[in-house]
Amino acid sequence: MTLQNGSIICAHSCSTGVDKANNLRWDLTPEEIRHRTEKLIQRIKQAYDTVGLVDIGKVCVENTLQVVADAKADYAASRHVLDFPQYVSPCKEVRQASTEADKRLSDFDVEVSMREDVFQRLLALQEKQSSDLLPESQRFLGRLLKLGKRNGLHLSKEIQEEIKSISKQISELSIDFNQNLNEEVTVLLFSKEELVGLAQSYLNGLEKTEDGRYKVTLAYPHYFPLMKRCHIPETRRKMEIAFHSRCKDVNTAILEKLIELRARLAKLLGFSSHANYMLEMTMAENSENVTKFLDELHTRLRRVGEQERCYLLSLKHADCARRGLDFDGQLHAWDMPYYMNQVERVKFAVDKDKLIEYFPLEVVTEGLLNIYQDLFGLTFQQVKNAHVWHKSVKLYSVLDSGTGEQIGQFYLDLHPREGKYGHAACFGLQPGCLGPDGNRRMPVAAMVANFTKPTSSWPSLLQHHEVETFFHEFGHVMHEICSRTRYADFSGTQVETDFVEVPSQMLENWVWEKESLKRMSRHYKDGSRIPDTLLNKLIASRVANTGLMNLRQIVLSKADQTLHTKDRVDTAAEFARHSQDILGIPATPGTNMTASFSHLAGGYDGQYYSYLWSEVYSMDIFFTRFKKEGILNPKVGREYRRVVLEAGGSMDGMEMLKKFLGREPCQDAFFLCKGLTETNTDPNSP
Prior knowledge:
Layout: E1 8-10, H1 30-52, H2 65-83, H3 85-88, H4 92-113, H5 116-129, H6 135-150, H7 157-182, E2 187-190, H8 200-204, E3 207-208, E4 214-217, H9 220-229, H10 233-243, H11 248-268, H12 274-279, H13 287-323, H14 336-346, H15 352-356, H16 361-376, E5 378-384, E6 394-400, E7 406-413, E8 425-430, E9 444-448, H17 464-482, H18 502-507, H19 514-519, H20 532-540, H21 546-563, H22 571-583, H23 610-629, H24 634-645, H25 653-661, H26 668-673
Parallel strand pairs: 1-5, 7-9
Antiparallel strand pairs: 2-4, 3-4, 5-6, 6-7, 8-9
Helix pairs in contact: 1-2, 1-4, 1-5, 4-7, 5-6, 7-11, 9-14, 13-14, 13-21, 17-24, 21-22, 24-25
């Protein structure tokens, strides 16, 4: 791949030493993972023991806060070679060892979080010396004490032990939930006649059985194109049932147990619900504010959603008549992606078959990386002969283009394989913070995705929504890499959960702008530029299905809130109720979408609303600054890098927003991009 300045460097012979600060090893055996896990636990426990033994009358920053900070930095930098392989290693034994390490370390996390002796010394430090601390140090100390109270360290020993036991169960069940999904390998077999409507490029990427049938998995590159393009309703029905039945029995039991445990824990800590417990640390603060936000948005979108649903039904009626199929007068879950895709073709004349030809993965990657480099004042250099976990993975170093200083590294792992994490995500692997010697540690992150694999005769071509996903997740990577904080706890994406999506969502806008789209697209055969007519139709289609797509996000957000404001619940029934009431589409009988809703066991429990909440702010940032001053304006980009990305979690999200916008944020841009003309300028709600 040719990047800006043609930069490719060698991992072992570079004068700038770009690889020296990345000591992450991806070739550990299962036994080495187990051994390193125990050694890490011993080392960190020893550091906390040291703090716990300090004479409480002699506490100072150096013997308490700094020791904890150094231990946290060491732990964060050492842990991910142990727990990250479960998501990406091609070896099942390594994935299993990594999963077990994650469970062991998660148990240890609970033990560390319940160190009352350390908590008491930090409390003494606050009373003695907090006014003398740097602002970020004051914030760090305050955070540690708040987390201590949220873990019940102010409660009786008996309650603390119960909290510890429940917390360990929650950690282990959450890991099991996601491991089940990662190891899911369902395959459906279809004849060519059952796949009518799918492009030849899609069929070329499928394996075949000896009798000529196609093997279709439930991985994203197989599932979503089929659901959008296959003309055969029965094929779509079978796929939809299989997709929303993934790990149904085992994960439904796990999720419903998690809900019970979370509710019990919240009550022990004095909260009315798990949702309110989680929301205490967010911008929204409580479930009442979340409910108000979602209800108001639902009201604004309801009429649009009804109109769109009626239009989809008319498309289905016409489609059934054209194909000689019975029309049942209803929209089913397996109809939605197909007819929503038809809206783009009929109303906006977007030719998806033609469009995909202009987004070969290598061209998109080159364009994306160059845009980020120009915008944020960075230089990316591919590391040659890099140490990685799979031959398809690439490693890049990130330098400040002005000073030449290396500021971080990132991996790109973009194609599906057996046992790999099935979604798209950014994983922080090493925090960017100050080490014990006072020198800055280099942040390292990985973007993991599941874009279609190239074959010997066919390149990897991306759907436009996959290009959007690429920009979104790489926005998280930049958040990890560009942050410059003192403490590991504030590095990168360690911000409020309902702010964490703001930087990545904001950067999705670049895939809807002609100037940037031209930089990331070329025809895979002859390198020709994408025609303006096709670009204009694509950009106009941004508002296609906006009501239904956002109503679905409200369904997921409402379901999450409902599940986590009750003590026990039938998860399938709750999702089905919200889907019918809000979206007007029944859940398919026998399925349970929540059993594969990984966010509910991946840190977004009680907080899935964050995607919609964050989008309000991300649109305000884009339209107020970048759209007005230039989407590729390096002056604005570098200010954004300095004010938002470099700050990490060292200041409140709202303060960053006000500083960058120059005012209180508002909702106008959010509704504008949704094609809704009404605006609400109340600065007190997102």
